[in-house]
């Protein structure tokens, strides 16, 4: 841990420092293609892994993303909502299968590309900067059938897909996330994802940066890990391992030296020796050429952050997965506010600690800004769905932690613009600032109290750099 002490006492970690948001700060909200678009087979779109997931009856109450929020037909409606929020930035993802139905350029769908043209143009006409994520978990099923991210050929396929998107939309899109929260879906395929990210960055750098003047990065997800007992060195070390196994897995190769963290590799090798009969998967090795090609491939540090964990040292045994291999256990404090999610608890001070950790651990040499590319919490679809006071409290607290200690944060993205299809949870968890009535075929949207709150925050910041708690 380079210069960051994890062992803070509660009264120290909760100190509040007054800071102000700069005039050009980017206030954003977001959506993801498979969660909102619908039109799952329209105009030649190919099937995705999430389409298959829903059709196989694996989501809550057999729900599917076939129609979702019907954003495929509601571009003007959605941009109208964005104008009402007063955001100056909108982050959305492209469905790879809507552009290339089979995942390859030879299957290109012009109608699919036109949908994104329409959305991007509508945003720009409204003074809203589009931020595009190339991959947020929805893989063309045709590629999945060939092994998906486990197949090394996907690196070239992703590079080609990214090349097309840069060429087609890059005259108007100036910020690109290659991946969003890749850790969530990549425990066995991180190697190919990192190489895919690097190849996409190099395509932009070599072919488009000079004429388009944009930026390419990656949106990594991470909790903050606080030692359960700050007085125990073994808990401090366990908290560090937690961060290395979650954030360092991707961030260290990209921002430090092109390779996985040394502590990460050492821990895996140690576990292999301890568990010869149930050997964990060996960590792939980057060649010297690959390390050089990966290192430095980010123009900003994208961060998706939702919660924190208390971490202590454990023996781990031969249990598979990051916790078993990493010899740590994670917990939550009973005083933290819970949400409709079984993993998101409100601990806003953790964002401040994580931003300082990132700045010290990864941005000493590659001095790029941090973009908070996702922060939010879900509510359940019960009772008064519009009066989401708990979300307002969460947002207020996390926004207050975003710009302390002089860390160079340039964007805050509230997840998300509207309720959507949340994977296996279907429509039962609601992350949206706008309520979507999924019982109505027209999918009407209604602003929640959190939408009014976020709009007021942004308007206040536009008028003056507000200091202190809202």
Automatic annotation (TrEMBL):
Signal peptide: none annotated. InterPro entries: GH, Glyco_hydro_1. GO terms for biological process: carbohydrate metabolic process. It holds the Pfam family Glyco_hydro_1. One of its GO terms (molecular function) is hydrolase activity, hydrolyzing O-glycosyl compounds. Keywords: Glycoprotein, Glycosidase, Hydrolase. It comes from the Eukaryota. Homodimer. Belongs to the glycosyl hydrolase 1 family. This is Lactase. It comes from Dissostichus mawsoni (Antarctic cod).
């Amino acid at each position: 841990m380079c210069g960051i002490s994890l062992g803070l006492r509660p009264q120290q970690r909760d100190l509040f420092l007054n800071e102000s948001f700069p005039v050009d700060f980017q206030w954003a909200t977001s959506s993801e293609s498979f969660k909102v678009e619908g039109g799952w087979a329209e105009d030649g779109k190919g099937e995705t892994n999430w389409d298959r997931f829903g059709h196989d009856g694996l989501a809550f109450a057999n729900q599917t993303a076939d129609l979702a929020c019907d954003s495929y037909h509601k571009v003007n409606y959605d941009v109208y909502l964005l104008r009402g929020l007063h955001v100056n930035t909108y982050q959305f993802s492209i469905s790879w299968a809507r552009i290339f139905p089979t995942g390859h350029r030879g299957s290109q769908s012009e109608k699919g590309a036109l949908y994104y043209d329409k959305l991007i143009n509508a945003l720009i006409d409204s003074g809203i900067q589009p931020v595009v994520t190339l991959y947020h978990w929805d893989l063309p099923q045709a590629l999945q059938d060939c092994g998906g991210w486990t197949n090394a050929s996907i690196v070239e396929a992703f590079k080609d897909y990214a090349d097309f998107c840069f060429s087609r939309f890059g005259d108007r899109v100036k910020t690109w996330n290659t991946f969003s929260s890749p850790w969530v879906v990549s425990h066995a395929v991180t190697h190919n994802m990192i190489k895919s990210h690097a190849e996409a960055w190099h395509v932009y750098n070599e072919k488009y940066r000079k004429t388009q003047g944009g930026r390419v990065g990656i949106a990594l997800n991470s909790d903050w890990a606080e030692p359960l007992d700050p007085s125990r060195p073994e808990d401090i070390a366990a908290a560090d391992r937690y961060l290395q196994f979650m954030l360092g897995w991707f961030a260290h190769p990209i921002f430090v030296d092109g390779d996985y963290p040394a502590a990460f590799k050492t821990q895996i090798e140690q576990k292999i020796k301890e568990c010869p009969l149930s050997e964990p998967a060996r960590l792939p090795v980057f060649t010297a050429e690959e390390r050089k090609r990966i290192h430095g491939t980010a123009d900003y540090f994208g961060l998706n952050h939702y919660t924190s964990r208390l971490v202590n040292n454990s023996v781990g045994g031969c249990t598979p997965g990051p916790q078993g291999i990493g010899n740590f256990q994670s917990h939550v404090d009973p005083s933290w506010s819970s949400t409709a999610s079984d993993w998101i608890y409100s601990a806003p001070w953790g964002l401040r600690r994580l931003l300082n950790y990132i700045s010290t651990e990864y941005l000493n040499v590659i001095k790029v800004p941090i973009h908070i590319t996702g922060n939010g919490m879900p509510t359940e679809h019960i009772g008064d769905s519009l009066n989401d006071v708990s979300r307002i409290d969460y947002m207020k607290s996390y926004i207050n932690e975003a710009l302390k200690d002089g860390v160079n944060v340039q964007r805050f993205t509230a997840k998300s613009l509207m309720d959507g299809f949340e994977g296996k949870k279907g429509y039962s968890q609601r992350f949206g600032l706008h309520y979507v009535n999924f019982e109505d075929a027209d999918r009407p949207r209604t602003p929640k109290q959190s939408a009014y709150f976020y709009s007021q925050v942004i308007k206040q910041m536009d008028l003056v750099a507000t200091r202190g708690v809202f």
